[in-house]
Amino acid sequence: MKDLKDIKNRAEKEVSSARNNETIRQVFQKYLGKKGEVTLILRSLKDLPEKKRKEIGKLANAIRQELEEKITIKGRAIGAKVERNKPKKRIDFSFPGHKLTTGHLHPITQVEREVEDIFQRLGFSVIEGPEVESEWYNFDALNIPANHPARDMWDTFWLRSNQKIPISKFQIPNKSKIKNKNQNLLLRTHTSPVQVRYMEKHNPPLRIIVPGRTFRYEATDASHEINFYQVEGLMVDKKISAANMKAIMERFFEMFFRQSAKIRLRPSFFPFTEPSFEVDVRCLICGGKGCSVCSKRGWLEMAGAGMVHPQVFKSAGLNPRNWQGFAFGMGLDRLTMMKYKIDDVRLLYKGDLRFLEQF
Ligand code: DAH
User: What is the pLDDT averaged over residues 31-52?
Assistant: First the structure.
């Protein structure tokens, strides 16, 4: 009993001399916390004989209650004091506000939209196709049969190579023309399959471009990515010649690079065009004299192109005797790199804001 009274006296003194939240918390812990002096006495009651237990228990409980109240009151008083000493909040109207940062379109998207805009002004419609494609559209329909070495031109990501999809599951007009009744799926290696998809459903005359994402299974370096973007072009009518193609492409490059452009066609090979060309643009940096950008050649390789192969018209259900057309395929990444003088294609896919914020 004497101990208890002693505890009470000490505790009350400490409470009244406490000046801040921290000390009041310490006082609480010292006497009423888990291992506090009062708490320990209350816990030891069970070992005492009944009479003593009642007596001491009563006093200890009373002290606990009283202390608790005093600590709460004191705590509030200190809290109130702290509150009262706080400086009043003021609004400084001259303080500069937070700068709002907004995102913006990726450089490739910006270039894609510009390309679309230019071709639309030249009378072309913008068409899209699927990124997961069947073997038929990506290869066979474009005159690239299975087991033909021409397929080696496109390193391909195949999907589920051990499990073919029956042709009956595809929504393809005139399925009967397709010999291979079980189709592999793949990630399209170029945008050319959309030529056939479009001509199946639309009769010429027609002018379309097809921008989109393409994939190649190959090692990456400064000019190769496994994922990149192309834009396909297709113009079909009764009398379309390579001269039409040259005129349209020259006009496009002039509008895109905003300077006079000269192009040249070099003979090349693609299974879906005959004849086939490589389209070069006179170097935009040196004007043809030869510099590091064009590797001293004076010309930059910008697109593959050619006159639509009769087999491609047949794949789409059109009679090749009735129609002529040209097609081309350009790398959107390449256009972006030329426009902004970027020397590594991988920069476009890193998502590094230090790079992207420059556009
Ligand atoms: N599809 C070709 C490629 O990815 C590019 C191409 C060449 C597209 C000639 C065409 C074309 O439409 O006529 O390498």
Answer: 89
Q: How far is the CA of 269 from the centre of ligand 1 (A)?
A: 10
Query: How does pLDDT run across 96-125, given as a tens digit for each residue?
Result: 888 888 899 999 999 999 999 999 999 999
Would you call 325 helix, strand, or coil by DSSP?
A: strand
Q: Say yes or no: 21 and 126 in one domain.
A: no
**Per the domain annotation, does 182 fall within a domain?**
no
Q: Give the residue numbers spanning the domain of 73.
A: 2-85
Question: 130 pLDDT band (50/70/90 cuts)?
Answer: very high
> For residue 323, which of 224, 195, 178 has the smallest C-alpha distance?
195
Atom from ligand 1 closest to the CA of residue 326: 13
* pLDDT 10s digits, 214-228: 999 999 998 899 999
Cβ partners under 8 Å of residue 260, min gap 6: 254
Q: Which residues line ligand 1 (CB under 6 A)?
A: 190, 192, 232, 270, 273, 304-306, 327-329
Same domain, 262 and 332: yes
Do 36 and 122 fall within a single domain?
A: no
pTM exceeds 0.70 for this model: yes
314 shares its domain with 275:
yes
Residue owning the nearest CA to atom 12 of ligand 1: 328
CB neighbour list of residue 186: distance below 8 Å, 6 or more residues apart: 132, 133, 134, 135, 138, 156, 157, 158, 159
